[in-house]
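Ticket 4471: requesting a sanity check on a complex prediction with 5-phosphoarabinonic acid. Repro inputs:
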Amino acid sequence: MTQIRLDFGNLMAPGVEGGVDATHFAGALSERFALAAAAVEQRRAAGDLGFLDLPYATESAAQVAALADGFGQWFEDVVVLGIGGSGLGATSLRDALLGPFWNSRSNEERDHFPRLHVVDNPDPHTLRALLGRIDPARTLFNVISKSGATAETMAQYLVIRDLVDKTVGPDKARGHFLFTTDPSRGALRQIGDAEGIPMLPVPENVGGRFSVLTAVGLLPAAVCGIDIEALLAGAAAMEVRCRSAVLAENPAGILATLLHGADTDQGRAIHVLMPYCDRLRSLALWFQQLWGESLGKALRLDGSHSPVGPTPLPALGASDQHSLLQLLMEGPQDKVVVFVTVDDPGPDLAIPNRHPEIPALAYLGGHSLGELLATERSATAEALRREGRPNATISLPEVSAFALGQLYMLLEVATVFAGALYGVDPLDQPGVELSKVLTYGLMGREGVARPEIAEPDPKWMV
Ligand code: PA5
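Returned structure tokens:
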């Protein structure tokens, strides 16, 4: 069980031109971090940071595992209905740990675990296509909403509930649903209580984007055979590493402090997370939400209003070397790239030496695809370094539940440290409320006035 590593040499001088000086790191930045760490410790002591306790919540994990065991045997398909933090965790876990084409594999290839679909956007084409491919009588619908009221998720629940009622009858229908929601409040809990639908709680003090290690992510993972104990053990190992208030010892502290400093001291406000591994592509999307929604704020903790926040940009190596790399190498000096690489990618594919007479192909023969991907990551990091473009690399020993647990915890802790450094509350999201309220008003929700919406002006249309 090896640790994941953070190599931040390419953020430091003289490795990269304009990088952080060792004295600055040991001095001002360490002091800045110590203050942030103290603020985070206060919030932890106040009970606000429930995600830090999740690796040790063995009782609720055991409850999830027991429920998942029963469900996994009964259903061919599991459909998660959940958006934002209620969907991205399950998607990233599925893609990383079940691997490519899970849902296209045969029952035997899946070891008889169910297929796993995550439906977030209420696009009727997607849902219709999915419903045309599954048998509702052999499907479990895991409706995930912390608030129990999110329009996209609840609308999809209403559509599906009707369908399942019609397919299996209202009595049996409730056996096809599992709700994951607030322990005491919300419409979903109200329905679950009234109809005797099994429910799993999302702890009060864990918000959506920090909830991957609650039942929100653990249930869909466990039902498909992912080792959730190893996931939590990885998270625990990283949580311990991230307790230190000494910057040089704290991987999440280093990531947060250097990314925050890159933004506020050097104007590098675009933070690219670029795994060189297809299985980690969705993890970059999960990070996009975590970093963007947590840190993009107008209200500072001191009560002042001055918008801050980095822009996270998910990318994939090597594919995006053929789309974004030109911009990263020569575009404005407003970005930092954090690569994610995997030391042991697992079963590899050797590249045959089929054309020794053609130099453009001959050099590939005798290597492997995994080697090519890893080499491209190192070459890109070096190319950026030579151009004075700061970058860092997180290395996973392998794509395993233990490594993923570490990675989720590293990025979550880095986010709350970054919140303290930016002087914002990383746990709230007041900016998304207005569009929700306008949607409610336009869709006719009781008690919400129909809003005036600026009509498109034909003068500005072509
Ligand atoms: O991180 C968050 O809090 C949000 O992205 C929520 O996860 C998202 O809005 C969905 O909310 P809910 O789980 O209440 O349906």
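Notes from triage: The chain has a mean pLDDT of 96. Leaving this open until the requester confirms.
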